[in-house]
Amino acid sequence: MLKKITLIRILIFYIFIIYSFTGCKPTKSAIKVDTTPIIASLDLVNIIDDKVKVELKINSINSDTISYYLPKIVPGTYQNNNYGKYIEDFKAFDNEGNELSVKKRGDNRWKINSAKQLSSITYLVNDTFDTENDHQIFSPTGTNILQNKNFVLNLYAFVGYFDNKKENKYNLFIKHPIDMEASTSLSEYLPKEPQAGALYDTDVFIFKRYADLADSPIMYSFPDKITFNINEIEVLLSVYSPTKLHRAAQLMPQMERMIRAQKNFLGYINTTKKYSVILYLSSSKSDDAKGFGALEHNTSTVVVLPESIPLQKLNESLTDVVSHEFFHIITPLSIHSEEIHDFDYNNPKMSKHLWLYEGTVEYFSLLFQINQALIEKEEFFERILEKINNSKNFDQSFSFAEMSKNILQDPYLENYGNVYEKGALISMCIDIIMREKSKGVYGIVDLIKGLSGRFGNKSPFKDDELIKVIEELSYPEVADFLKSHVINNTPIDYGYYLKKAGLIYNTVEIPSEYFIHEQEPFIKGSETTKKVVFTAGAERNNFLKKVGIKRGDILLSIDSKTYTIKNIYDLFSDSNKWNIGDDVVFTIERDQNILKLTSKVIPPAVEKIILKQNPNATEGQIAILKSWIND
User: Whose CB has fewer CB within 10 Å in the chain, the N or C terminal residue?
Assistant: First the structure.
């Protein structure tokens, strides 16, 4: 208690000194550009038209002009969200309270003139949850302002940064209703005890630099949270359920089992002492969040799921989502390139190693379940097959490294989902290679441990040097694999690697429909062109492949009948009338050229992959399998 009181008194004095400086004209001897904290405050009590008022105090500006930015994009997301669009009534003031000239440049930048006189800026922040029909911001990366009920504060959407001052310290004051509490992995400091009968309180959070602030989500709500400890990690589970249908205490047992299994799987890798699962359960109404999933942070994850799902399904969804996000404490949050460490929030340079950041994490979220006996090996094999099949639905014309480096633009962005499919499979193959070379002693977890020891969250690697480091920490065969199948675009023969683990990997044909198989359609309607477009799955259908159909082809007509988005469903009934051996003519558009493709009708079938243990596997293959899945 003594230490806390002493720290609070020191903090109050420190903050007093800062505010005193902001009230005086700076002198040359008082200028401390690189060390003076930026004072930011959020008012969650006096909400203005569903908006939060933000104020930042800053001094010691040496330039005539300065720009203030909200992020265009943040780490862990792979699309431009332009959080500056949600800022209103932006104003800048000098020490006397006189307004300075401000001009907005684009969506996320405000240029402030007479910057040497700048003392503070103020603006209002609108939230994103209640307007999701009007934008593409994924809910866990967005914000919620629900007065006296709930605030989801992804802080990068509320607080920005000044030119060349992202390394400055930030002191963040959050004024909030007295009966609402913060859920976060941050330590909070209270400058003074609230008076009896007070309606609000103020929390203070200290950040070493802007990147730390941007990586620290906070949820304010009436408390429904529970804390438990697992292998030296303190885990917080905080739940907001609008009708109180679900409670933290109900979800804790499954969460504890899962994270305990993850920690056992990781072994001595220990990158954080605290971890928070911030769960927002949406009403799914028109003015509430609809993007379900999660966003990782260094020591926490923000999860958004529908409140209406039953408890068992909610536990299953949390297991799938949080198991993936928890492993992000290793990569890219602990192991990452310079592009991520020195992230440019408005002109980002992306790393070419998404296979490591997302693929390895996705693979771990599957592997730990079989390793810790949470699933049976048959289910593990089925999930591997599912990823192989899913990966075939994405464009294979460019390398994984090329896609990663250019992920913010099409056609790469529309193939981002492949990081969870082929990305995971890349890690699987590396795992098998290492187990073969080490006779079952080492696997990809050991490689990640080595990378974590070599780098850590404060020492980024150079993008072009990662494979060389991986070779030093593993085997030349691993480096050769990455060069061939990640940097270059050589297709991966999964059967070749799975055979090393004593598995039979075969492709067989099973009956299908002409334009759909089970729930997988081989055609889709384009809302933009109103035309019918073939999906990547069409190339798995033996009839459409015989016709010569390719992914992205636009169907204009079959024989004498034209097809558009309006009559797309006629394709199913019309194709049922075809007779085997009949001639059929497809007219398509490909690369702005009109082509006529003629073929005879054959019974439709699709390729199906089977994966099972080989009863005649060698002792070496059996040893690799046992070390791989802990069988």
Answer: N
